[in-house]
Amino acid sequence: MKKILILFFLAAFLSCQKKDSKEENPNIVLIMADDLGWSDLSFMGSNYYETPNIDKLSKSGMTFYNGYASSANCAPSRASMMTGKYHPDHGIYTVSPSARGIDKTRKIIPIKNTENLDLDFFLMPEMLKNEGYINAHIGKWHLGSKGFYPEQNGFNINIGGWEKGSPKGGYFSPYKNPKLEDGPKGEYLTDRLTNEAIKFIDQNKKNRFFLHLSFHSVHTPIQSKKEYQENYSKKNGDENHNRPDYAGMIHSLDENIGRVLNQIEKLGLSGNTLIIFTSDNGGITAISNQYPLRAGKGSYYEGGIRVPLIFSWQGKINAGTKSYERVSNIDFYPTIKNIIGHNNKNLELDGIDLNPIFEGKKLDKRALFFHFPIYLEAYNVQKDAGRDPLFRTRPGSVIIKDNWKLHHYFEDNALELYNIVEDVSESKDLSKINKEKTKELFDDLKKWRNDKNAPIPSEKNPKYNQKFVDSLIFLIKDKKLSGRVKGLIRDLDH
User: Quick one: how far is CA 88 from the chain centroid?
Assistant: First the structure.
């Protein structure tokens, strides 16, 4: 009897401890910028863009200098972040369709893309909702059409989230967004989303909340407030960062992130709020060059997938710390899962828990994988800095392991190997020189693809025309075709 009483009180004690632990779970604010490049912030090295509030956030927590998006464009990156799973699981590889670019320039038939994130996935917000969180999605969603919106995916509140990626009505009201009421004419979208975010925080200051503040900035169209653009037009840029309209958009983004941070501090929530800041993919090279990183959005060179990343949690993550571990937004889900003590062990997440890094520990060695069996046409044939000027992405896979990175292209079975510490610009292909390392990474990549049942396109495209491709590339190199050349290519095609 005595033993039974002891066990009863022990169970009750542990239950209370668990309850107390749950009650100490933090609010979570995940701030996602759109198309913001790795070097597009002053704390990341830009001398042109001014981001004092994001700089302050960086100083308040841990900045990851080798932070990655799980994809080089928005929808697949967001899908992997929300599911915690790599792309072969959810099938979202790009923004539909997958056969982008001129037919005659594609050697193979790409894998068909999935447009809607399947409702069978147990998403990060659904996990948080199960743990008692009030969830709000504010801003860009882009993970499915009607019936697949945030409110069907674990969010109590959805303001602005629907199928469109770029703001249909631009950055000034009226927005032409069925999930966002128009404000006064000329209201700026970034300001409006922040107003809604602050309202949500105020209304839920006594609750546990998850805020996914998903700004459209700095996605095209590039539209700044007039006064901000004029201010930056008076400032000297450099060869990489020099557009005053883009700088004005970054200024508004930073200003509004500062408003959110100030409100959290004003309400006394800083000690119990985990803040994550990142971008869904790299910046567009033709708008803001990410040198020394090669290429940008849509490419699987570093400029397309390496992004700004900050974790801040007052009292839990040491201020002003830096990490050079290679981490990805696919790691957010398992990290948050462990912070809040969610005990479902059957989620089979592909990311890893980052909490040991916050405690000063090293991560166990692991590789990062990127699988994109699709095409993404050039944005600017003269400036994209891709493998060839016609595409930012041709079908292929990538593995990053330690300081090494291997690209594998499906059209011609070509391999490229780079040491991305010694050659962060990916300018020296070492695949023919270091055959041992090439084989090691290629074997790892093939095993991963096999384990994931990753689809690999192999069917030849009957419309492919090598002479047409050669003519296009000749004209591009001769600079008779430049910039965004869709119209000129269409004329040649006919």
Answer: 17
What are the CA-CA distances from residue 38 to residues 10, 16, 125, 162, 269 (Å)? Answer: 51, 44, 26, 27, 29
* Res 162 pLDDT > 60: yes
Run of H or E residues at 419: strand 415-419
Residue 426 has what pLDDT?
98
Q: Parallel, antiparallel, or unpaired: how do β-strands 391-393 and 396-401 relate?
A: unpaired
How distant, in Å, are the alpha carbons of 185, 237, 270, 325, 343 from that of 337? 42, 42, 20, 20, 8
Enter the tokens of residue 178. 């069925």
In terms of CATH architecture, what is 25-85+121-363? 3-Layer(aba) Sandwich (3.40)
255: CB partners within 8 A, 6+ apart: 53
Q: Which fold has domain 369-493?
A: Arylsulfatase, C-terminal domain (3.30.1120)
Q: How far apart are CA 390 and CA 195, in angstroms?
A: 41
User: pLDDT digit string (tens) for 42-99?
Assistant: 999 999 999 999 999 999 999 999 999 999 999 999 999 999 999 999 999 999 899 9
Cα 239 to chain center, whole Å? 25
Q: Where are the domains of the chain?
A: 25-85+121-363, 369-493
Task: Give the torsion through C-alpha atoms of 378, 141, 85, 336, to 10 deg.
Answer: 130
